[in-house]
C-alpha cells in the first residue's frame, strides 16, 4: 500500500492528524503567542463542523448572537472609541465633541467677539505689499483676484509655508470679503497693532522729532492722506484717541503704504497727552485760518507736536488755548481754509525744510 498522496502537479501532500491530547496541551498560538488553544477538535473539525451543523439546522446565527459569541471571549481593549449612553426616553442629542480639529468645533461667542475686535481688514495693492514687507506675522487670512497673484508671489509662498489661509476668488467674492468695491484686487485680514504711550515715545525720541496730534479727525480718506504725508516727511508718531483708527481699511488704502511708517500714540485724552509732551520738552503748535503767525515767516521747533482738528470746526477752544505757537497758512483767501490733509502736507513740508533738509 502506497502511503503517498500526490496532487495533479506531482507534489507530495503530507497530512497530519492531531490527537485530542495534543490539542488540549496547546494553550496559545505558537506563532503569535496570542489566544487560547482549541480544545477537543482538530483544525479541520473546527473549520468544518459548525458549517455543516448550520447547514443541517437550516438557520444562520443572528448578527447579535454572532457578535455576542465573539465578544464573550474577547478581552477588554483600550479602544479610542467611546459609547455614549442615554436613559430610556431621553431624546436630547449628545453635545458633539470634535476635539477642536474641525470647522464645527465649539467657539465661545465672547472669545469670537474679542477676536474680531482685535482684527481688521486692509486692502489695496500698495497698502498690502507694504504691510507684508514690514509685518507679515500679523496677517491672519488673505484674498486675491487672479490678476494680482503674479505680483504677490513672495506673499503667497510665505503664507503657504507658514500655514496662513489664502483664497484666489473672483471680484464679487472679494467685494464681500473686503466690504468695498475699491479693494484693488487684494484684501488682508490682520491683527491690529497696539498704540504706544507718551512716556514710551519720548523715551526713544531723538533731538528732532515731530508728532502729529489729531483731535476728532474722522474721515478715513483724510486720515490716510495725512499718514502718507507723515511717511514722506519723516513724521513717525500720530497721537489720537483710538490706535485702531489708523488701520481702518479705507485709511490704509489711501495711505498707499504710508501707514506702515507711522506709529499710533494713545492716552486717556489728547489734551492730557499734550501736557505730557510739553513736560518732555516738546512745543505745542496749532493752526488757525484766521489768526496766527504766517507759516513761511515762523520758526518751527525741532521737537514739536502739530495739533490739527476735525474737518468742519477745527480745533476745540481747549486745544487752541493750550498752544505754544499758532500758525496760519497764507494764500489768496479765495477759500476759507485748506482741507485738513492738504494743510498737514504743507505744514510738515515746512518743518522738514527747516529742520531736516
From TrEMBL:
<dbReference type="InterPro" id="IPR013123">
    <property type="entry name" value="SpoU_subst-bd"/>
</dbReference>
<dbReference type="GO" id="GO:0008173">
    <property type="term" value="F:RNA methyltransferase activity"/>
</dbReference>
<dbReference type="Pfam" id="PF00588">
    <property type="entry name" value="SpoU_methylase"/>
</dbReference>
<dbReference type="GO" id="GO:0006396">
    <property type="term" value="P:RNA processing"/>
</dbReference>
<keyword id="KW-0808">Transferase</keyword>
<dbReference type="InterPro" id="IPR029026">
    <property type="entry name" value="tRNA_m1G_MTases_N"/>
</dbReference>
<protein>
    <submittedName>
        <fullName>tRNA/rRNA methyltransferase</fullName>
        <ecNumber>2.1.1.-</ecNumber>
    </submittedName>
</protein>
<feature type="domain" description="RNA 2-O ribose methyltransferase substrate binding">
    <location>
        <begin position="121"/>
        <end position="196"/>
    </location>
</feature>
<dbReference type="GO" id="GO:0005829">
    <property type="term" value="C:cytosol"/>
</dbReference>
<dbReference type="InterPro" id="IPR016479">
    <property type="entry name" value="YfiF_prd"/>
</dbReference>
<dbReference type="InterPro" id="IPR004441">
    <property type="entry name" value="rRNA_MeTrfase_TrmH"/>
</dbReference>
<dbReference type="InterPro" id="IPR029028">
    <property type="entry name" value="Alpha/beta_knot_MTases"/>
</dbReference>
<dbReference type="GO" id="GO:0032259">
    <property type="term" value="P:methylation"/>
</dbReference>
<feature type="compositionally biased region" description="Basic and acidic residues">
    <location>
        <begin position="18"/>
        <end position="27"/>
    </location>
</feature>
<keyword id="KW-0489">Methyltransferase</keyword>
<dbReference type="InterPro" id="IPR001537">
    <property type="entry name" value="SpoU_MeTrfase"/>
</dbReference>
<feature type="compositionally biased region" description="Basic and acidic residues">
    <location>
        <begin position="45"/>
        <end position="76"/>
    </location>
</feature>
<feature type="region of interest" description="Disordered">
    <location>
        <begin position="1"/>
        <end position="110"/>
    </location>
</feature>
<dbReference type="InterPro" id="IPR029064">
    <property type="entry name" value="Ribosomal_eL30-like_sf"/>
</dbReference>
<dbReference type="GO" id="GO:0003723">
    <property type="term" value="F:RNA binding"/>
</dbReference>
<feature type="compositionally biased region" description="Basic and acidic residues">
    <location>
        <begin position="88"/>
        <end position="98"/>
    </location>
</feature>
<dbReference type="Pfam" id="PF08032">
    <property type="entry name" value="SpoU_sub_bind"/>
</dbReference>
Amino acid at each position: 500500500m502506497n502511503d503517498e498522496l500526490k496532487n495533479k502537479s506531482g507534489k507530495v501532500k503530507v497530512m497530519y492528524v492531531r490527537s485530542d491530547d495534543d490539542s488540549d496541551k496547546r494553550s496559545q498560538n505558537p506563532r503569535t503567542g496570542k489566544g487560547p488553544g482549541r480544545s477537543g477538535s482538530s483544525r479541520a473539525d473546527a473549520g468544518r463542523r459548525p458549517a455543516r451543523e448550520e447547514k443541517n439546522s437550516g438557520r444562520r446565527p443572528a448578527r447579535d448572537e454572532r457578535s455576542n459569541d465573539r465578544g464573550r471571549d474577547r478581552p477588554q481593549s483600550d479602544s479610542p472609541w467611546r459609547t455614549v449612553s442615554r436613559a430610556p426616553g431621553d431624546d436630547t442629542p449628545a453635545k458633539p465633541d470634535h476635539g477642536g480639529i474641525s470647522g464645527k468645533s465649539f467657539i465661545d461667542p465672547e472669545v469670537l467677539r474679542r477676536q474680531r475686535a482685535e482684527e481688521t481688514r486692509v486692502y489695496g495693492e500698495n497698502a498690502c505689499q507694504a504691510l507684508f514687507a514690514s509685518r507679515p506675522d500679523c496677517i491672519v487670512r488673505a484674498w486675491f483676484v487672479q490678476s494680482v497673484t503674479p505680483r504677490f508671489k513672495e506673499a503667497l509662498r510665505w503664507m503657504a509655508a507658514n500655514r496662513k489661509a489664502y483664497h484666489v476668488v473672483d471680484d464679487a467674492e472679494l467685494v464681500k470679503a473686503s466690504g468695498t468695491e475699491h479693494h484693488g484686487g487684494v484684501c488682508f485680514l490682520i491683527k491690529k497693532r497696539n498704540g504706544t504711550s507718551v512716556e514710551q515715545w519720548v523715551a526713544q525720541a531723538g533731538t528732532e522729532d515731530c508728532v502729529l496730534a489729531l483731535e476728532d479727525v474722522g474721515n478715513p480718506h483724510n486720515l490716510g492722506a495725512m499718514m502718507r504725508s507723515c511717511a514722506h516727511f519723516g513724521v513717525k508718531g500720530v497721537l489720537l484717541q483710538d490706535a485702531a483708527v489708523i488701520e481702518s481699511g479705507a485709511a490704509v488704502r489711501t495711505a498707499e503704504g504710508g501707514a506702515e511708517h507711522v506709529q499710533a500714540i494713545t492716552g486717556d485724552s489728547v489734551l492730557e497727552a499734550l501736557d505730557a509732551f510739553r513736560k518732555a520738552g516738546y512745543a505745542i503748535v496749532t493752526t488757525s485760518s484766521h489768526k496766527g503767525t504766517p507759516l513761511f515767516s515762523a520758526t518751527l521747533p525741532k521737537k514739536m507736536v502739530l495739533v490739527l482738528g476735525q474737518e468742519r470746526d477745527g480745533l476745540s477752544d481747549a486745544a487752541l488755548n493750550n498752544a505754544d505757537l499758532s500758525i496760519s497758512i497764507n494764500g489768496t483767501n479765495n477759500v476759507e481754509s485748506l482741507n485738513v490733509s492738504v494743510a498737514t502736507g504743507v505744514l510738515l513740508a515746512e518743518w522738514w525744510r527747516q529742520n531736516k533738509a
